[in-house]
Amino acid sequence: MKLGLQISSFTWPGGAEAIGPTLARIVHAADDAGFDSIWVMDHFFQIRGIGKPEDPMLEGWTTLGFMAAHSRRARLGLMVGGVHYRAPGLWIKAATTLDVLSSGRAWLGIGAAWNQDESLSLGFGFPPLGERFELLEDVLRMAHGMWTGERGSESRYEGRRVTATRLLNSPQSISRPRVPILVGGGGEQRTLRLVAQYADACNVFGGPQAIHHKYEVLRRHCENVGRDPDEIERSTLQTVRLADDGSGAPGDTEAQVVDRFGELWDAGAEHVIFSLRDVWRIDPIERIGRDVIPRLRTL
Questions:
Q1: Lower CB count within 10 Å: N or C terminus of the chain?
Q2: Per-residue pLDDT for the chain (299 aa), expressed as one digit of tens each?
Q3: What is the spatial distance between Cα 5 and Cα 280, in angstroms, rounded to a whole number?
């Protein structure tokens, strides 16, 4: 089993001046602890369930570049990018840049997005869901073209929402055959169909029964398009609250985390990506690295 750390909050002691040094410590600790991947959300305001919209939030691609400079082995990505936030070619160029500068450690994590409030607040606009899915498919198809060969396909692209006259990509990604593509979301009609057609990984939510159902839906989509479902990494996004983490709040022991993730493995998950409460304390990261990761490696 692979493990990924999602950094979902930047509300840490010390205010804005401390965010950079604190993030550097977190990323370095997670890298040393053995996490396979490290992720940040692609939001501009903090989201419900984690904090207030006014809480600190960093722009995703810039943050990943900073994280690349403070890590050596973990792959890095957005969990997941909102497709309408950037032009399609920029998505692929940014992921390529991260891959080159990190020596081949980038993910392209992307989805149809949902946060209308932050989009309209900052002037991004918020196309209808159907248009966002058409745009998402354009990005995925263009990614396959731009990550072809030494400099991309260099061909013209005509899509549902995008016209591009030359799919040139230089320098080319270090990750081959391409930067791995993760499509987030569990929509059974459109999202998982796009995963089957274009992606290298999916990411779904829920407990063992719920994620197993989503993986079975993905398997059927793969059958329909003639693809081996084992080519697609099955990931799930979770939250971990460790007991005795210094926050005073209740939580799970390391053994309970191992048991819970073992159930997710039995349900089909290969890569569990999770956030940790008060990750800035560093101790929760070290405990996961010492007492959880070695046991899960045996699954």
A1: C
A2: 999 999 999 999 999 999 999 999 999 999 999 999 999 999 999 999 899 999 999 999 999 999 999 999 999 999 999 999 999 999 999 999 999 999 999 999 999 999 999 999 999 899 999 999 999 999 999 999 999 999 999 999 999 999 999 999 999 999 999 999 999 999 999 999 999 999 999 999 999 999 999 999 999 999 999 999 999 999 999 999 998 877 777 889 999 999 999 999 999 999 999 999 999 999 999 999 999 999 998 87
A3: 12
Across the strands, what pairs with 108? Answer: 181
Amino acid type, 9: S
Enter the tokens of residue 259.
């048991």
SS3 category, 2: strand
Residue 110 near residue 81, CB atoms below 8 Å: yes
d(CA 81, CA 74): 19
Whether the ω angle into residue 177 lies within 30 degrees of 0, i.e. cis, is: yes
> Per the structure block, which two tokens stand in for 87?
């032009």
Task: Enter the DSSP assignment of 103.
Answer: T
Q: 199-203 contacts: CB < 8 A, separation 24 or more?
A: 199/140, 199/232, 200/231, 200/232, 200/233, 201/107, 201/232, 201/233, 201/234, 201/235, 201/271, 202/232, 202/233, 202/234, 202/235, 203/79, 203/80, 203/109, 203/235, 203/236, 203/237, 203/273
* Amino acid (1-letter code) at residue 166: R
Q: Are 282 and 14 in contact (CB under 8 A)?
A: no
Nearest-10 Cα torsion for 86, 92, 96, 98: 30
Q: Compute the distance between CA of residue 125 and CA of residue 93 in angstroms, rounded to an integer.
A: 22
